[in-house]
Design a protein that fits this description.
6-stranded mixed beta sheet; disordered N terminus; two-stranded antiparallel ribbon; single chain
Length: about 230
């Protein structure tokens, strides 16, 4: 169970388990799969996968539908977090992030008419780190990426493979610490459902009812409900 620490008018929770231990376990699981499948690294854009590999967060929902944030995990080399904007404090102290960089966002929202130019810069940026630590292995797994990004990476001599299998297989075996975190997530969900029951009455709107679940989730450290 998490313990609550009161600070002024706000309440903060202490983690119910050693988060660094969980972080290192997860990264180890990914690297184990990379080695088994002979991939030199994996590039993850799915925000569930960036969270799993680094535990760093930044505008998770928005970044889920904009290719503007990713992490490059080398099987035998560093983990580089390519973040949206420039907020290195969001990854400070994480044992799973060796280097923090800002992603060259090539989507039209960010680059406009210079999308092709910025996509090339993205490919060069990723390839520079990849080739330095790949040991001659050109095989890179990717969980998802648009044609602009894939074309830019292939232009740098990188062979691309489906990385979702890597991530799903890595995530399929939970550590003892992860089970503790899952139970805590369930506890928070149950608190949210209790809050919904308390306000449930004839005439209440569905939005008003669901807002209690979201409010309780956020109050207890949740980030989003999917």
């Amino acid at each position: 169970m998490a313990t609550t620490v009161q600070h002024g008018a706000m309440a903060y929770t202490e983690p119910p388990t050693d988060l660094d231990e969980v972080r290192r376990y997860r990264l180890g699981r990914v690297r184990e799969q990379l080695t088994l499948q002979d991939y030199a690294g994996i590039l993850v854009f799915d925000q569930l996968n960036t969270r799993y590999t680094t535990d760093a967060t930044n505008m998770q929902i928005w970044c889920s539908h904009m290719e503007t944030r990713c992490a490059l995990i080398m099987a035998d080399g560093p983990v580089v977090l390519y973040d949206y904007a420039n907020h290195p404090f969001l990854a400070a102290g994480l044992p799973t992030v060796d280097e923090y960089r800002v992603l060259p966002s090539y989507n039209f929202f960010a680059a406009g008419s210079r999308s092709a130019e910025w996509a090339q810069r993205f490919g060069e940026e990723i390839a520079g780190v990849f080739h330095q630590h790949a040991g001659g292995n050109n095989r890179l797994a990717i969980d998802r990426l648009s044609h602009q990004g894939t074309d830019a990476l292939r232009a740098q001599g990188i062979e691309l493979f489906d990385g979702q299998a890597v991530m799903e297989t890595a995530r399929s075996v939970k550590s003892a610490g992860e089970l503790v975190l899952m139970r805590e997530a369930i506890r928070v969900c149950q608190l949210g459902m209790d809050a919904m029951h308390k306000v449930l009455q004839p005439g209440i709107t569905e939005n008003a009812l669901w807002s209690e679940l979201h409010r309780t989730n956020i109050e207890n450290g949740g980030e989003w409900i999917e």
